[in-house]
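[SOLVED] Need 3D model of a two-part complex

Original post:
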Amino acid sequence: MNGVHDMGGMHGLGRVEYEPNEPVFHAAWEGRVLAMNLATSAWRKWNLDTFRHQIEQIAASDYLRMSYYEKWFTALTERLVLSGLATRAEVEGGKPALGSAKATPPLTADQVSNILRSGALASRDVAIDPRFQPGQRVRTRNMHPTGHTRLPRYARDKHGTVDRDHGVYVFPDTAASSGDEKPQHVYSIRFAAPELWGEQASPRDAVYIDLWDDYLEPA
Amino acid sequence: MSAVSHGHDHDHDHQAVPSDLTLRVKALESLLTEKGLVDSKALDALVDKYEHKVGPRNGAQVVARAWSDPAYKQRLLEDATAAIAELGYGGAQGEHMVVVENTPRIHNLIVCTLCSCYPWSVLGLPPVWYKSAPYRSRAVMDPRGVLREFGMELPEETEIRVWDSTAELRYLVLPERPDGSETLDENELAALVTRDAMIGVAKVARP
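Solution:
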């Protein structure tokens, strides 16, 4: 979706504000939000792409105003309701519905280190021929889907060169909507800065973007 | 009340104060715990992990090893995930790693314009500025201007490579080893390496 989250190349958002000696969390609730997100994902009711798309659906004015973990909190609340893990009345009231059964958490404290250590692979071990080779010229598609995509607006309908083939990965556009993984190659594509930003950009500079097969056409 | 009062109570516009959010997060945690959806001890363990154990010191060890051991550096640039795992780091948000090397001619900068992708396993959780609209919007279009705000002026002839983390690959910059560090051992070298240098918004200072 052409949302405000897709910020590459926007003006007017201000200077970078740097905080020296920044703490990991600025308040205890931030850590709890991070942890609740990681712990509820163990129910496997949604995937990373669904969650990212949930954040993207926060209204643009709220998205720009909210802090990072407030956005996570908002998206988590929505996912809990949409997935059926909790009802709207429960998340608004903070109390379980009368007579609801108590579940057993899928993630316990003693499993945390192992879960984080193993992570979750987004690559898929399936034999699929790459459509493009390193060194090949490609053009990105001019697409504007209303759903989730990881092809940024600033890089649509642009020419680039395949720098390397990262292998086969889950395709976020379909994984976010239907759960269909549609595995395909992801390539690092090198775009000369002037191709993206015009003559104001240095011809020496480049932006490398990781893009899926479905985003690309031969140039 | 503000100067633009319209003659009715505006208090409902001003409820998103931090204390309110604190209460809402507490309420959600108690709901999830009561429903058996999360274990509060697991939440404690997750917070502890990212507050105290996983952070940029991991990445600094990787950089120091690469500076000290040319064969390791080569493995790191060829297959970063495997080379980083040799030092015991990996997993969540570091499953698929790529390391890009700064040289006198090339400077690398990492960003995620679409959200906040960041190599947690070697750098920990991202700082606020990395996730902020100003950095995400401008790093790809005006990297020299952004670096200037970090106090870094690069010569015209330097090639800047900006890596937009749009997929599940996570990037780490291998900074240039500073002059004057020739006699330092690996731990002393690691102590020089900052988070910012591994994102590409700073150089590693001379010891």
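Edit: The CA atoms of residues 123 and 169 of chain A lie 4 Å apart.
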